[in-house]
Design goal:
alpha+beta, about 45% helix, about 15% strand, elongated
Length: about 500
């Protein structure tokens, strides 16, 4: 047995005389089920929310993961063919969620009148119009009430315009962010980096520590990973996922540690567990803290104004009754009522909602100019109250790309200047041993094309950047890392234990 152990700065090779160890797990054997018989309902029976045990029983009754692969015409090594992709999209749907309908400007405009302050102002404006026309005539009596209505219309217009613009900006931002997401899928024998939206049922996805799961899937190889499902199920502890036991991976959850694992997709889009939960979520806009305070203040002013108006009306009514002894009381009562209503109208600060709305809209625009996008106006107030922002980053900007520039190889230290000719300086035996270690004992791999199929100037490293630097070094020495691993590593009998912070190493047993 040869034990290959990798550490970011050291290579150790430990040889031990022993018999060849074979894995107690065997690769899945494909059954002879007809690939066109599995239905969406059958797949759903393997993917019941919060039904891990029931899902396992249903899958075992169907024939296990091997039968599932055969039914979906998928292969753990080669994935599905391009012809199968379109058929699965039509049968099982796309890995996308229907976009929630966007409210138009006019709907937002009319909804803005639900604000209690604006309702009070509209009532005050109507009363002011009536009183003004009665007292001063139609020529001048409409001015005060009209001014209040104009202020209300301005508040509604600014609020609706601000909300409509924000929604457009955030939809564009979310679309751009989703377009940048990538996952690794095996199709027709080739590894491809694609947007999760393009993943279909039956695809073989490759996951490593740190990857987000793009769709509901079942582990279909002999490796094991730890998965954090707290965001979806509330389970705080990481769960072990392997084909023999709990093999179900849920979309939107995170792979925290473990080996590179291959999984076959069984649920996408609205048919995934996350999709079923998301379909029941309803998001409603809420007021900012300042707007809540304004509503409370408007209610308090309204109550105070009503009390003052009622008290004034009572005092004037008693005064009129005492002076006139029941004669010409009607005219005095009307005058007292008009005065009471005037007190209510004057008490309400009609300019305050407009000032607050314009201030928040202005703050939103300023933050947008500083590349700070906000969807909820409360963020303006929150950031306005922040005095210190603490960060644990150094501020150094890098390309997140590592390269081997010097090291200690085969009892020989090569400086940065000497390393450029390492393939000539080091013996063939040393190069072969190092290339075998870095090629076998790793999870990282290189992608030479982007998602559109264009050739990259520099290979993109998928996985650990340190491992990526080492396999690029091996390639520079003329030893293809994939060919070396294929020649040395047997998936059925050999095991790879990925790096984690507890062990502080990764290991491969051949």
């Amino acid at each position: 047995m040869c034990c290959l152990i990798f550490h970011p700065s050291l290579f150790h090779i430990v040889h031990r005389c022993s018999t060849l160890l074979s894995s107690d797990q065997v690769s899945p054997l494909h059954s002879s089920l007809d690939g066109d018989k599995i239905t969406l309902d059958k797949l759903d029976s393997f993917n019941i929310p919060q039904g891990r045990q029931e899902n396992r029983e249903n899958l075992d009754a169907f024939g296990g993961v091997s039968a599932l692969l055969t039914a979906l015409k998928s292969d753990p090594e080669k994935g599905i063919t391009p012809e199968t992709v379109q058929h699965h999209v039509e049968t099982y749907g796309r890995n996308a969620f229907p976009e929630s309908p966007m409210k138009g400007f006019w709907m937002l405009f009319f909804e803005s009148f639900n604000d209690p302050t604006l309702m009070i102002l509209i009532g005050a404006a109507v009363v002011s119009l009536v009183i003004g026309i009665i007292e001063e005539g139609a020529a001048k009596g409409w001015i005060e009430g009209g001014a209040i209505l104009i202020a209300v219309l301005l508040v509604a217009s600014v609020t609706a315009g601000n909300d409509y613009t924000k929604e457009l900006q955030f939809r564009e931002l979310e679309k751009s962010s989703q377009n940048d997401e990538r996952c690794t899928v095996v199709r027709n024998g080739d590894k491809e980096r694609m947007n999760p939206v393009d993943v279909v049922v039956g695809d073989i996805i490759i996951l490593q520590a740190g990857d987000s799961i793009p769709a509901d899937a079942c582990v279909c190889d002999n490796n094991m990973v730890m998965c954090n499902e707290s965001a979806l199920t509330g389970e705080s502890d990481d769960l072990q996922k392997k084909q023999a036991k709990d093999c179900f991976l849920l979309s939107s959850c995170l792979i925290t540690e473990g080996e590179e694992v291959r999984a076959v997709v069984i649920g996408v889009g609205v048919n995934s567990q996350w999709g079923k939960i998301k379909a029941n979520l309803v998001s409603e806009a809420v007021n900012t803290p300042l707007q809540d305070k304004l509503e409370i203040m408007a209610e308090q002013i309204g109550y105070a104004g009503m009390i003052a108006a009622v008290a004034t009306f009572l005092v004037m009514f008693i005064s009129i009754w005492a002076r006139h002894h029941g004669e010409d009381i009607l005219e005095g009562v009307v005058h007292a009522f008009i005065l009471a209503i005037t007190i209510v109208v004057v008490a309400i600060p009609e300019g305050l909602p407009l000032a607050v709305t314009i201030a928040l809209a202005y703050s939103t625009k300023k933050m947008y100019q500083d590349q700070c996008f906000i969807r909820i106006l409360a963020a303006c107030e929150t950031m306005g109250n922040a005095t210190n922002i603490c960060s644990d980053k150094t501020g150094t900007l890098t390309e997140n790309r590592m390269t081997v520039v010097e090291g200690f190889f085969g009892d020989q230290r090569l400086s940065q200047a000497e390393f450029t000719s390492a393939n000539k300086t080091l013996s063939e035996k040393v190069q072969s041993v190092i290339a075998e270690n870095v090629s076998v004992n790793r999870l990282a791999y290189l992608m030479y094309k982007d998602a559109e199929g264009n050739k990259l100037h520099t290979p993109a490293v998928i996985g650990s950047k340190t491992e990526g630097a080492l396999i690029m070094m091996s390639n520079d020495w003329g030893k293809d890392y994939e060919q070396v691993k294929t020649a040395s590593f047997n998936d059925r009998t050999d095991r790879l234990f990925a790096f984690n912070s507890a062990k502080k190493r990764s290991s491969a047993i051949l």
